[in-house]
Specification:
Layout: H1 5-12, H2 17-33, H3 37-44, H4 51-62, H5 64-83, H6 86-113, H7 120-135, H8 137-144, H9 195-290
Helix pairs in contact: 2-3, 4-6, 4-7, 5-6, 6-7, 6-9, 7-8
Length: about 290
């Protein structure tokens, strides 16, 4: 039974994209059956997240440790910016793009493991959101809700525009899922298992994520190759068109030169004939005057 809006948000934004709309309908029906028309209306108004937003939400819930490492880096960079530590800024600045690219690929790989592919456009939106997370603490809070409905962008100047970026105006962090037996929520007591087995499982999970990230990177490269091929073909077509136009222009210029020459000859001939005509008229006039 859904008792409040946040519980509905937690369920909806943890669900796979293809389950969002039907699950939202089910939760609306539950709220109506419970006699809470206002809650039903609020749930019905919740927006479906974009693929990029869903991938980030999924990563927030399922990979909190990996995200925490990135957040620590973001805090170091923000602190260096606040204190104007030039040496620290240079050192961290060189790492910034690498970390954003690496985490972006991990987010895409985690989404693919969950059955949702992340294309080049969505991956770019993931990167934009990570840039915003680094640049602004408010953006970080919105990301941690696990209820993004769209990517967050940051130009690098001023505050981040986070209007309408999350499902509800609530900065409470999302419930995370601990990978392991039963998929328990974070905070529940975990079963006691062998430490080495846990380390091995963690290494294996990390390798799987890296393999997934490699596959995502290769898919992105193939898509980029296709785009390059398409644009190369278009370039060749345009180049051929320009060459054809240049040939036609050269032909037109030759015709212009020829017609101009013929016009000059005709004009000269007309002038000669006009001169002869004038001379004949004067000769006739002189003859008539002498008679």
């Amino acid at each position: 039974m859904i008792l409040h809006l946040r519980a509905a948000v937690q369920q909806l934004y943890a669900a796979p994209p293809n389950r969002f709309t039907p699950l939202r309908g089910e939760l609306v029906a539950e709220a109506r059956d419970a006699g809470d028309a206002d809650l039903a209306k609020q749930i019905g108004a919740l927006r479906k997240p974009t693929i990029a937003a869903w991938a980030i939400n999924h990563f927030v819930r399922t990979r909190p440790d990996d995200l925490a490492e990135f957040r620590n880096f973001a805090e170091l960079l923000r602190e260096a910016q606040r204190t104007l530590d030039a040496d620290q800024l240079r050192a961290l600045g060189r790492e910034r793009a690498k970390r954003i690219d690496a985490l972006g690929l991990e987010i895409a790989a985690a989404a693919k493991e969950a059955g949702q592919s992340v294309g080049a456009g969505a991956l770019a939106e993931v990167h934009e959101t990570l840039v915003a997370l680094i640049g602004d603490e408010e953006a970080e809070k919105k990301v941690l809700t696990g209820a993004l409905v769209k990517a967050i962008s940051y130009s690098g100047f001023g505050s981040v525009d986070i209007e309408g970026a999350v499902a509800i105006d609530d900065d409470e962090p999302a419930l995370t899922v601990v990978e392991g037996e039963g998929g328990r929520a974070a905070g529940e007591e975990m079963s006691t298992i062998d430490l080495e087995e846990r380390r091995r499982a963690k290494r294996e999970a990390q390798r799987n994520r890296l393999v997934g990230a490699l596959h995502v990177a290769r898919d992105a490269t193939r898509e980029a190759d296709r785009q390059v091929a398409v644009l190369s073909a278009r370039l060749e077509e345009v180049t051929e068109g320009i060459a054809d136009l240049e040939r036609r222009l050269a032909t037109a210029r030759e015709r212009l030169a020829k017609v101009t020459g013929e016009l000059d000859q005709a004009t000269a001939e007309r002038n000669r004939r006009e001169t002869a005509e004038g001379a004949a008229e004067r000769a006739l006039a002189d003859h008539d005057a002498d008679s």
